[in-house]
Design brief:
Strand order of the largest sheet: 1-2-3
CATH topology of the largest domain: Rossmann fold
Shape: globular
CATH architecture of the largest domain: 3-Layer(aba) Sandwich
Number of strands: 3
Distance between the termini: 30 Å
Number of domains: 2
Strand content: 5-15%
CATH class of the largest domain: Alpha Beta
Radius of gyration: 16 Å
Helix content: 40-55%
Order of helices and strands: EHHEHEHH
Largest sheet: 3 strands, parallel
CATH superfamily of the largest domain: P-loop containing nucleotide triphosphate hydrolases
């Protein structure tokens, strides 16, 4: 799984373009997720986000690339980000001899996520 972090205030930079140029190769082997950061900051623009979606869709054809809008300060999008990661781990666990290790990791991450959202870990 690849998480590609993009600043939602600025759109695609040259380094992002270089990463996206690898999509045709990566998509056959890897789940690719775009994480749009700094959604809570001044300068966040829905138009930029729409432009990023359009540019990514143009590169991948009919393959869907998830985009997750996040904020490290408010933790917005954190649950969705963890969910994507855990889904990938679950798929990996089906093919892994260390499934119990992965399940233990999932329990730790779920507790961490509950603490993040203010929930109880018990």
């Amino acid at each position: 799984m690849v998480f590609h972090l993009i600043d939602s205030r600025h759109g695609l930079l040259e380094a992002d373009e270089q990463c996206l140029s690898l999509l045709p190769v990566l998509l056959s082997e890897t789940q690719y997720v775009v994480v749009l950061t700094k959604a809570d900051k001044r300068g966040y623009n829905k138009g930029i986000v729409a432009k990023i979606r359009k540019e990514i869709d143009a590169r991948v054809g009919d393959k869907f690339i998830p985009m997750i809008l996040t904020s490290s300060e408010t933790r917005y999008g954190g649950t969705t980000l963890w969910s994507n990661l855990l889904d990938c781990i679950a798929v990996t666990a089906e093919d892994s001899s260390s499934r119990n290790d992965l399940l233990s990791l999932e329990k730790i991450l779920v507790v961490d996520n509950e603490n993040e959202s203010g929930g109880s870990s018990t």
